Amino acid sequence: MDEKRFRQLAERLAHQYPDSVTLPLPPGCAVLVPDWLTPGKAETLMAHCLDTLEWDQPSVRLFGRQYPIPRRHAFIGDAGVRYRWSGLEQHPQPWTAPLKDVRDRLFEAGFAFNSILINHYRSGADGMGWHADNERELGDSPVVATISLGQPRRLSFRVRQGAGREVLELPSGSLLLTSGAVQHHWQHQVAKSRRPLAGRISLTFRYIHSNL
């Protein structure tokens, strides 16, 4: 999706949700809708994910050694979709009805996705380091939608080549949309914390081109 179309859809969302915040991340941008899910729906969806999904904690190779990722995750998607990252190739679990309902709601807003990578941060000891969602299978301008459930966590952005930094607090029930240009020019992370934090789940919706 090109930047012009993304901004048109983002403006439409901002009219529907007056508390929405647009964060410029030049040459792209991000849009945060803090109350996209009601507290009750966010709590119910989190419980569904914890109770229903098959969770995994794979290991990735860093500096010649294998390390388990500092969180649990599950991959959901259409049949035939596969996702490759950090030397891993993942095949999806089938959609559950509640997760399909969320995807349908995003589609109604103009955003089409065929998969979700779901991360479970069990406490402040879990996190995700600096990275960009720019794998080849995501295409040239990959829009990513992130829905946060449970404990609010900070998502930090930094310019890939430069000194720019931005931080967003992601409350439970929020929707964050990032445009394709953000993936190419910025990195993001969910930093670990020494504070006593409760569990958080993030649902990151992507469109994966498995034939690329």
TrEMBL record:
Domain of life: Bacteria
Boundaries of every Fe2OG dioxygenase domain copy: 112-209
Entries under Pfam families matching the protein: 2OG-FeII_Oxy_2
Full protein name: Fe2OG dioxygenase domain-containing protein
